[in-house]
């Protein structure tokens, strides 16, 4: 049990990176002159809050959507649009530090967001009504992408972000090109529940994970534990009252190509759970890392990015 808790706390820590590290990530990247985001939206009626920081191909800002101030980062101006979304207690720069500027800005437009209640998006606080919270996030993500002028997108979903990606592809199929999924499962096991239960107390997290999540959420212990405990309550409810099922019934109806990554040592997603995804998805490719835990996109960023790049650019074989 302790090894499971340690591995999961390392997973939480992998979301996190210091401001100094984030600045290094952006340093010495190629600068291209492109049409500014504000100019591209001149013909769009903007919501009340539209704060932008421009660094040529790099844009960071907020949109007010459905009563929330949603933070996003946009990098590049390429025709292939990628949208990255994570799970519980993530944050843009921390969750996707190896992807933030990894994709050629002339070929790709990479978009990242903080869902409501996570990272810098406002208001703080979330509710976790089973399935409803994912579907609400799907609608907000859709509105965000529309405001950014996106017509077609490939979704990169990590953990709960994978659930969002599956639901998005069902609700807005006209908008989805492909999916890249990792750390995601379609049903829960008792081991999943035990790991989450063991993490209710912040004192049970590893020192590194505890330190980093406190930095990311301004040392607000009550907020961190409040969000996490609500999430664990929701996991228990799904396990006990919803047949352990997490959108399993949707998978056969996903009509776009899906790339699934998995690490053999991921304590959060078993081989059985990954095999269930592979068995139910119609158009699926699979890549397994021998190590990398729940964060293969960070531990093996270069390989992950290269395989994903090739998958997105290859012609559909459906």
TrEMBL record:
Residues 89-192 form the AB hydrolase-1 domain. It comes from the Eukaryota. GO terms for molecular function: serine hydrolase activity. This is Valacyclovir hydrolase-like. It comes from Diaphorina citri. The lineage of its organism: Eukaryota, Metazoa, Ecdysozoa, Arthropoda, Hexapoda.
């Amino acid at each position: 049990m302790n090894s499971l808790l340690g591995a999961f706390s390392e997973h939480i820590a992998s979301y996190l990176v210091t401001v100094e590290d984030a600045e290094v990530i952006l340093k010495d990247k190629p600068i291209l002159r492109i049409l500014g985001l504000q100019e591209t939206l001149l013909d769009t009626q903007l919501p009340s809050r539209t704060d932008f920081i421009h660094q040529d191909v790099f844009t960071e800002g907020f949109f007010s959507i459905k009563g929330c101030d949603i933070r996003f980062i946009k990098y590049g101006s390429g025709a292939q649009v990628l949208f990255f979304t994570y799970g519980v207690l993530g944050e843009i720069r921390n969750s996707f530090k190896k992807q933030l500027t990894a994709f050629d800005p002339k070929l790709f437009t990479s978009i990242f967001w903080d869902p409501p209640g996570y990272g810098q998006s406002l208001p703080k606080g979330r509710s976790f009504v089973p399935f409803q919270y994912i579907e609400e996030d799907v609608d907000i993500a859709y509105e965000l992408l529309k405001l950014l002028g996106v017509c077609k997108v490939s979704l990169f979903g990590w953990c709960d972000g994978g659930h969002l990606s599956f639901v998005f592809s069902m609700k807005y199929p006209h908008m989805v090109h492909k999916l890249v999924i990792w750390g995601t499962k379609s049903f829960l096991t008792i081991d999943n529940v035990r790991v989450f239960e063991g993490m209710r107390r912040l004192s049970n997290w590893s020192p590194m994970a505890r330190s980093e999540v406190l930095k990311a959420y301004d040392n607000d212990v009550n907020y961190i534990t409040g969000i996490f405990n609500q999430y664990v309550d929701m996991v228990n409810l799904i396990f006990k009252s919803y047949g352990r099922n997490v959108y399993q019934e949707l998978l056969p109806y996903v009509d776009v190509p899906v790339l699934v990554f998995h690490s053999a040592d991921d304590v959060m997603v078993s081989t059985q759970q990954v095999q269930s995804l592979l068995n139910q998805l119609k158009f699926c490719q699979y890549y397994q890392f021998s190590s990398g835990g729940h964060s293969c996109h960070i531990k093996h960023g270069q390989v992950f990015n290269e395989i994903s790049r090739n998958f997105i650019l290859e012609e559909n074989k459906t």
